[in-house]
Amino acid sequence: MTESRTEAPATAGQIAASGDTGEPAFYYPPQELVDQSNIMAYARERGFADAEALRQWTVENSTEFWADMARRLVDWYEPFNTVLDDSEAPFYKWFTDGKINIVHNALDRQVKTWRKNKLALIWESEQGEAKTFTYWQLYKRVNKFANVLKSMGVQKGDRVTIYLPRIPEIMIAMLACAKIGAMHSVVYGGFSVEALQTRIVDAQSKVVITADGGYMNGKIVELKKITDDAIKHTPVVEIVIVVQRTGQEIEMQPGRDLWYHDLMALPIASPKCETEQVDAEQPLFMLYTSGTTGTPKGLVHTHGGYQVGVATTLHFTFDIKEEDVWWCAADPGWITGHSYIVYGPLILGATQVMYEGAPTFPYPNRWWTIVERYGVTILYTAPTAIRGLMRFGEAWANRHDLSTLRLLGSVGEPINPEAWRWYHRVIGQGNCPIMDTWWQTETGGFMITPNPTTPLKPGSASRPFLGIDADVVNELGEPAGDDEDGLLIIKQPWPSMLRTIYNNPERYLEQYWDKAPQGLYTAGDSARQDDDGYFWVIGRIDDVIKVSGYRLGTAEVESALVSHPAVAEAAAIGLPHEVKGNAIHTFVILKNGIEPSQDLEDELRAHVGTMMGPIAKPEAVNFVPSLPKTRSGKIMRRVLKSRALGLPEGDLSTLES
Ligand code: WT7
Q1: pLDDT of residue 296
Q2: Considering the entire predicted model, what is its pTM?
Q3: Ligand 1 mutation pick, 314, 440, 468, max ligand atoms within 8 A of CB
Q4: Which residues line ligand 1 at a C-beta cut-off of 6 Å?
């Protein structure tokens, strides 16, 4: 299972056909890419013949490996003494006694080198306007805004909620918080009132940063109005900073709401600002994600370990080089954007592209015009986007010169082999290996992923990243056999792991560490490993639905439904969907005397959209007289799902009769 199989055949880009199906079993990377890759350079330096041998060494010597990365890829104000402190496991600490700040490595150190004048960010608006920022320009904006936050009394450890569209200010705001040691809590701009409110309350943010509105698909998202609704009953919020993006009419509450551009024009907004020197374990941010209950979890990441994890994974997996143009098409509001838009690329001194809007605006070739215009070399996106673009046919991509691309990436859900092959053939023109990266908000960075030397199997994230020890086990915690489904677990800590759930350490223990087998990190996914040791992630084992790669809790959708006056009870499940991967289907029991109707169905769908955001809008609302429940009253979503799919209903012994 662990035998090395990375040797590529002599011909670049060659495909090895598997005997019976006619489809290639492995897609091999171009030899030149392998030879020149960052990972091979490190393997050679360490005396290994290939990346797989290096990988095995790093898994067995993970603290030595991570310490090496912590010294090479980032700078410390004061060096760390301990690499990994496991005295209070699973509350692991990394690089203790080290003093650092992620912004020092992302910006401060860059402007002292030739990278000062290198482009850090090329931003394109949905309307097609472009703005660029050198490292120096970004550095100064961040300093100015950090001074603004300081002048409002924001201090080390305070939480600031950021609810912004995909514009440069979201990066500036996040970096400014980090610079002064405050924690940012970014709420994705596609979320709505309820989601925003619960996250502000849980974080107890006194300052909220938003915009008048944002553009998406030619329409305006009313961010300020949603913010107003969310904080109406949230007395903790003292100040709302508003970025002017659309120029639309909005209400500004005197004494509470302030324009970003006015603040940035004040003398207090000096372009010089000392970076706070913090402990490696100082919390950097919290990011909410859905779990099994209605209350979202604020996952906490830290300054030290997180940046080491993010820089290492981006360096080796996507092979970032000085001359690359990196484009992670995710939203900065998700972990993908935190790690691989805001922090990772800046720490590595890369040039990156950020695009504000929808992939099909105004036409389905929008992304390919961007690749061509800026000469993008590495593109990282999600299966749902690929499937969405695939529907319009390959002619849209074929009209553009995509020959600058050298690597592609995928994240968020399993990629179906058909979409993988299309992405590889049409977008990568057969030359670009696809890095199918499996990871989570919890893990901070890639956990199971190919690297540029890995022979690829479409649909498999291949093998664990350097230093990561992953496995598949059965319910008793014993290793599953080849091709046997089981729970995906991680057997040793890694630097960019979550540290806790904000204000809820018990939930952290119970959710991730107390499942079988005890003491090992349980990801919440089921998976299998084939006889080459490749991992195939199947999907979530809990009540989380992945809709277009977004993680939504059934409980949150259900609570939005029952907040409607017509609804007595509700259940939500995910069913397969061609583009979205999964779509939300709901089952609703109406209150006595209320009649089902098409209008009511539309109203309920819209209600969930308004409460939670358009991504959570159910595909269907089915009116039912009852719901299958256990004797203790828990809804059996599994039964609803089997029924909807016409499958056997499985073990019904706990079903209430
Ligand atoms: C869940 C985590 C990590 C960034 C975006 C999602 C699923 C993620 C893959 C992949 C199969 C994947 C898992 C995981 N997932 N990447 N390459 N192949 N499944 O972060 O919202 O925290 O969701 O996304 O189910 O547990 P997230």
Answers
A1: 83
A2: 0.93
A3: 440
A4: 289, 335-336, 411-414, 436-441, 461, 523-525, 537, 540, 546, 551
